[in-house]
Amino acid sequence: MQWQTLAATLFPRGHAIVQRDDFLCGSAQVGADIIEVIGTTGHAPIGVEIALAQAQAILRIVREHPRRAILLLIDTQGQRLRRRDEMLGINSYMAHLGKCVDLARRRGHKVIGLVYDQALSGGFIASGLMADACYALPGATIRVMGLAAMARITKVPEERLAELAASNPVFAPGPENYLRMGGLEAIWDGDLAAHLAQALACDGVEDTRSALGQQRGGRRLAQPVIDAILEGRHVRAA
């Protein structure tokens, strides 16, 4: 889906989102409230420039619009794979972006992520997965690492990984699998404006992704491990 079509659907009362290269930024009306919108388009590769632009936009919102909700529109092919970006320290730029999202949350900004097209690897981790809650459209493409790349890294044959992906969402791409793992709060279909209004009205501030993954059968051990660690801390404290 083109971002212009998405914005018209999400914001029937109007918006002032502008596109600069692959970077999206602006404000929009949701009910009686104004929200800020930051995002990417064109399957944007996240290099140092766009990571810094997103971070600067978030810091500006924190400074100029205290506690105003932020919507992250996500369409990225992940970290830009260029020697220049690596030499400039793209990992630090993306870490800075993630820290800015966390700062906004700590300052009282509701942060919502929406994968409307493609979300891959580090570009997704530093944006949608840093939000209070992340959602996706049904046709979105989501994965942290493709099976071919995973095979090269893990030395496990791609055919074996494909077999595992058929039954284990950890190995499989797609919004349905990330929903099962708890990485997505929900998949939005139908009235997108209503879905957005409902998400912004939600008061939840705790990170429940591990608990959701356990409930949905996609990540069965993350929450038990967390509970065991917390229980151990309580025992030592006593």
UniProtKB/TrEMBL annotation:
Enzyme superclass (EC)? lyase
Q: Which domain of life is it from?
A: Bacteria
Q: Sorted alphabetically, which Pfam families does this protein's record hold?
A: MdcE
Question: What molecular functions are annotated in GO for this chain?
Answer: lyase activity
Q: What does the record give as EC number?
A: 4.1.1.88
Which keywords, in A-to-Z order, does the entry hold?
Lyase
> Record's InterPro entries?
ClpP/crotonase-like_dom_sf, Malonate_gamma
Q: Which NCBIfam families match?
A: malonate_gamma
Q: What is this protein called?
A: Biotin-independent malonate decarboxylase subunit gamma
Organism field = Janthinobacterium fluminis
This chain is encoded by the gene named mdcE
